[in-house]
Design a protein that fits this description.
44% helix, 7-stranded parallel beta sheet, 15 strands, alpha/beta, Rossmann fold, single chain
Length: 421
């Protein structure tokens, strides 16, 4: 490949990246099964694909599966801080997949890379946050006739896409990978829970036990964070806007209150809601000295960083991925990972074992959209239940776990109404 065909930090990192990719693949038996099937069937032969995803070792194995399916694939990062530079180098140098991603790239470079991915003129897009779909609809509408459909990985992206569909703006079908049970019940809860605490601990090296840990939201991601923080000995408070989720958090044993009441008590605050200004100016005003503020939602808008910048009279970086804002009264507010996904900015993201199911969903959803997209409406679709169950079966088999099978008598009973007491 020539330099014009990719943009990564350093190709000399490729060998280290290859080791990391191979290490992850050992924890991804479902993707291995999908890859083997794709090599035989080649369901995406010659299809042009552009993917906007976190460039990690797990994503690399998804890319290899799509390559095995015959796809002509280009990748770009879905967050300026989520790229593993050695993995990006290996994808280019070892696996010959063009990548446009550098950890720490500025916003201008980030958008140059998005445009480079769309210069590939894809027939399918694969998003984590809906940036490619958004750019196609705003700036590159001339390419929309080439698009069969898209897949979307994360809650934030689904929120954006459903808003587009509701307003009639969405011009092609999208599969909501995030809505698959084998994605949100496992990746969002167990993956986000573990990797978020990993990122916070790596960034701060502060003991979690005995601290007050505030989690904004109680969706699948937030409940995973709350669960892991409690498991490490934290006193966990949950904030919510949904009465049902708030009630669930209470029944799960957490204290629930508005953020304005929780913020003064917090040693740590982490948001994972998909909304804007969840942690806002009036919350910073009441936080105690040394509070560590982080985000595990897709975009850093969950924290009102401009307000924090305006309030501060000074700023310093005492550790990697920690910016300490000094307020006029001498209090310090510690922002982790620039307010971006703390699990990817300060750590390595989700463990491969949970991304195995998520990326199997991505791969199978891409094939489904390509094969059926021309007959689908321009809306957001849930992944078919048979794909979800197939992935769950693959995962159980890889773990050596067997489950019961209904007898003919049991099936007949479940499908009848006549038999009763």
């Amino acid at each position: 490949m020539s330099k014009k065909e990719f943009d990564v930090k350093d190709l000399n990192l490729a060998e280290q990246g290859r080791w990391r990719i191979e290490w992850a693949l050992k924890e991804m038996p479902v993707i291995r099964s999908v890859m083997e099937r794709f090599q035989k069937e080649r369901p995406l032969e010659g299809v042009k694909m552009s993917g906007c995803l976190h460039i990690t070792s797990e994503t690399a194995n998804l890319a290899r599966a799509l390559q095995a399916a015959g796809a002509d694939l280009v990748l770009t990062a879905s967050n300026p801080l989520s790229t593993q530079d050695d993995v990006a180098a290996a994808l280019v140098s070892v696996f010959e997949i063009p990548v446009f991603a550098i950890k720490g790239e500025d916003n201008a470079t980030y958008y140059q890379h998005l445009n480079a991915a769309l210069d590939h003129r894809p027939n399918l897009t694969m998003d984590d946050g809906a940036d490619l779909v958004s750019m196609l609809h705003k700036d590159r509408t001339n390419q929309i006739p080439d698009i069969v459909g898209s897949t979307e990985e994360t809650t934030t992206g689904i929120i954006r896409l459903r808003a587009m569909a509701a307003s009639g703006a969405l011009k092609f079908p999208v599969m909501a990978v995030n809505d698959a049970d084998t994605k949100h019940m496992f990746d969002n809860r167990y993956g986000t829970g573990q990797s978020t605490l990993d990122g916070i601990i790596r960034a701060t090296n502060i003991l979690i036990a005995g601290k007050t840990f505030v989690v904004a939201g109680y969706g699948w991601c937030s409940r995973g964070i709350a669960m892991r923080a409690r498991g490490m000995g934290a006193n966990v408070i949950v904030t919510e806007i949904d009465p049902l989720k708030a009630l669930e958090a209470v029944m799960d044993g957490f204290r629930v209150m508005p953020m304005i009441e929780a913020a003064p008590q917090a040693d740590f605050i982490c948001s994972a809601t998909g909304d804007k200004n969840v942690i806002d100016r009036h919350h910073f005003e009441v936080m105690k000295d040394g509070c560590c503020v982080s985000n595990s939602g897709h975009f850093n808008v969950e924290i009102n960083i401009p307000a924090l910048e305006e309030m501060a009279v000074g700023k310093r970086s005492p550790r990697a991925f920690v910016d300490e804002y000094i307020l006029p009264d001498g209090r310090n507010i510690r922002l982790l990972g620039e307010g971006r996904l703390v699990n990817l900015a300060a750590a390595e993201g989700h463990p491969a074992a949970v991304m195995d199911m998520s990326f199997a969903n991505q791969a199978l959803a891409a094939v489904y959209v390509f094969q059926n997209g021309k007959n689908m409406e321009n809306k957001v679709y849930r992944i078919p239940e048979e794909i979800d169950r197939e992935i769950a079966r693959f995962k159980l088999e890889s773990m050596g776990i067997k489950i019961d099978i209904l007898t003919e008598e049991q099936e007949a009973y479940l499908n009848s109404w006549e038999e009763g007491t």
